[in-house]
Amino acid sequence: MKQLMNSVKNSPGEKERTAVLRLEMDYELATLFEAMNTENEEMKTKSKQRLERIRQELLRLKAL
């Protein structure tokens, strides 16, 4: 059973999704930085929400 879980956990599709999520996280961090510099509260809130969603998915994939 443990071997089955490890093979499922390390599937190529999961690795690809993890890479995409990391790119999305980098983009959202840049967006959040811009929002902080311009003091745009609405943009900051939206970026934080997106970052939280990305974080949760990365945790689910056990990649963070």
SS content category: mainly alpha
What string gives the helices and strands in order? HHH
Q: In percent terms, what proportion of residues is strand?
A: under 5%
Biggest beta-sheet profile: none
- How far apart are the termini? 24 Å
Characterise this structure.
This protein is mainly alpha-helical and 64 residues long. It has one domain. The protein contains 3 helices and no strands. It has helices at residues 2-9, 12-38, 41-60. Helix 2 packs antiparallel against helix 3 (41-60). The radius of gyration is 15 Å and the shape is elongated. The two termini are 24 Å apart. Keywords: Coiled coil. Residues 37-64 form a coiled coil.
Please tag this protein with its features.
64 residues, mainly alpha, 3 helices, 0% strand, elongated
Topology:
Layout: H1 2-9, H2 12-38, H3 41-60
Q: Briefly, what is this?
A:
It is built from 3 helices and no strands.
